[in-house]
Records
---
Amino acid sequence: MTLLLPAAASMDLTGPLAELSERGFSPLGRTLSDEGITALGQRADAIMLGRGADPKEFFFQHDSPSGRYEDLQHGRGYVGPSLAYRKIEKLEKDPLFRSWIQNALFERVARSLCEGPITLYRAVLFNKAPHGGTELPWHQDNGSFWGLDRAPLVQIWTALDDAPIEAGCLEIVPGSHAGGLATPLGGMVPQNVAEAAGAEARRIFVPARAGESILIHNDVWHRSGVNETDAPRRGFTICYLRGETRCLRTRRAPRRFETVFGA
């Protein structure tokens, strides 16, 4: 099966990488083939429905009935067949998703930013069911909450469905990565900080068509709303690390990050 569009493999990355550095994100355009869109979408649904894979292999979080981020339940994991899971992590364990993680274009992106081996922090499906989903507040994907000894390398987000504004597309504050972390902990940007920075006035919507990918700096402020359409809004995001990155967590045994692109 051919997942990566042939033309995307040799894409000129000069402009996108410059935009990533300046604005904190850069749309790459269409990267995933029609065959890949169908296959990854079907595979995502099968995993949520518990078909063809052991749910224990993955990490699940279901949407909250209210759609409020504050009402999400933590620690429950897989609660049975449902197409309303908010996210599924550890998708690198699935052969089809793993083949997308290791595609030639994404390897070129990572190697343009770092010499040596590239490892994986996470591979996550973010799902917003039709007329559902959870409103995700302004946040940064970095900080001590992530438990790393250095900043992540880059995230690459790929739409498995059309993600228009009304479906809860990505919203980004361009250039917000330049200010570093809003708090040392990272994660959610405090409301007073977002208000002081004028995030609402500065934000832009970043809609995407199925099969399009977006480079995202881990420090850029981003969020998404609920899905008000009749179709699902599924996006697959991959976070790559420099090979020398180490886990600082001590509560449990430190994580070992798997190499996805060797030296």
---
Amino acid sequence: MVDHQFADAGLAELYDAQHPWESRGDYAFYSGLVMAAESVLDVGCGTGTLLHAARAAGHAGRLCGLDPAAGMIERARKRTDVEWLLGDLTTVHLDREFDLIVMAGHAFQVFVTDDELRTSLASIRSALTENGRFAFETRNPAARAWERWTPDNVSEFVDACGNTVRSWHEVETPLEDDLVSFTTTYTSPAWDRPQESQSTLRFLDAAALSTFLAEVGFVVDEQFGDWDQSLLTETSPEIITLAGR
């Protein structure tokens, strides 16, 4: 997931090490869409991996990444032939500039209030060209992914310095409606102390999602339940949506 608490460049570096491009099914899905579009905005772009890969693969059009986390954008800017914007959908104003807008890495789930979600969706729609599309995913709440976010479920990886790092999530209980708040802890024998980030994500089901999209004028073109483009079902892990103006 893209954790927008990664304002620190060190935590952003850990995110890259833990989630390498080659291991992520969502990037294979989004890369095809990005390469087929003339102009692309990546909202919640994180460290810019998706747009870096697109430019390296020969994308010759406009590529722009937007993220509110300074640490993420700092790492994204190592590639200078892509536009990078530090901020969010309330601080930038774009009018029909992009053929495709994507939100990968479950970034869509950081919109935790109804007003924030409606405002953000309206801004995304305004930034699309007449025939533009918005592609994003959110975890299907029926799959209850957060139940596996426990200190017993530890992820281990190697950071850029060659240090072994262990990480785990700890969910705050009780849950608040469709919101899940949790702390991610990182430890390494090479460090003096652990590092932590805190996040809150919203889990919307397909019906609620469709209502919010329709309220601001989006029309759902396609929906999938996983990155192999399988049909969306009650038990699908993801709700992957492509919507148009």
